[in-house]
Amino acid sequence: xxxxxxxxxxxxxxxxxxxxxxxxxxxxxxxxxxxxxxxxxxxxxxxxxxxxxxxxxxxxxxxxxxxxxxxxxxxxxxxxxxxxxxxxxxxxxxxxxxxxxxxxxxxxxxxxxxxxxxxxxxxxxxxxxxxxxxxxxxxxxxxxxxxxxxxxxxxxxxxxxxxxxxxxxxxxxxxxxxxxxxxxxxxxxxxxxxxxxxxxxxxxxxxxxxxxxxxxxxxxxxxxxxxxxxxxxxxxxxxxxxxxxxxxxxxxxxxxxxxxxxxxxxxxxxxxxxxxxxxxxxxxxxxxxxxxxxxxxxxxxxxxxxxxxxxxxxxxxxxxxxxxxxxx
Length: 328
Fold this sequence. Notes:
14 strands, Rossmann fold, 2 domains, UDP-galactose 4-epimerase, domain 1, alpha/beta
């Protein structure tokens, strides 16, 4: 099967490209390299281009006889979306519509969409199930929720079958193949902690210390990026087997607070982490923990990495090997 991954030079995208190739798929990545890294992919896997250019993207799909697309390309930062919502609506929705038109022009029938737990906002219960209310509290989450709704109507009108995977917190790395997490600037918790251990930042900021959680800090469900990549493959196999459009949470089903992550990182690295309290970031829910039961049951998916320490250890190994990130 021929598969294209948009945003394939990014964090989740590059791990997914590698997993697809390892599972025998013909796979190419399409990325404008605004946040992705050329060094994360073999040169023969990468096509540089913008999703806003509908005709160019459709031509790429036809040239490579693409049968399914995994759509990872997006602006994806909650705090930044609160500061610059126009960027998120332009990139995730306006460019997303150009992307969907290219799929129509190239007659691509199957899509796996990288959605987000941010669609839920403040959950009414924990763990969160897929049918729970979706009331996003930041522009990033809203852009994902609206795109999910658009896909529903594209399925009805144009027979575009899709799976939306609502990621919780992707983390970890694949150091054995040289892949890891390298955002610039880095705002994600685990790499921020590890970069502080490496002396690349003076301390870790804990955004919010009086949330209604056990230790007052925000709680998140961390899923290893390789398990997330395998969820994309399971979604493709489901669609190939005739499965109908659907939506699934991707997480471990258990949450860890910011302080617990810092403690686990100190155990993994055998070094202390300097942290200081900072005000909560607008748009951040207190708790986001998935129920992945539906994904496990319907797509026969199981996570390999179930312990926070092993997720952090894989990231730590990559950061030690490449303390400056990707060299490009």
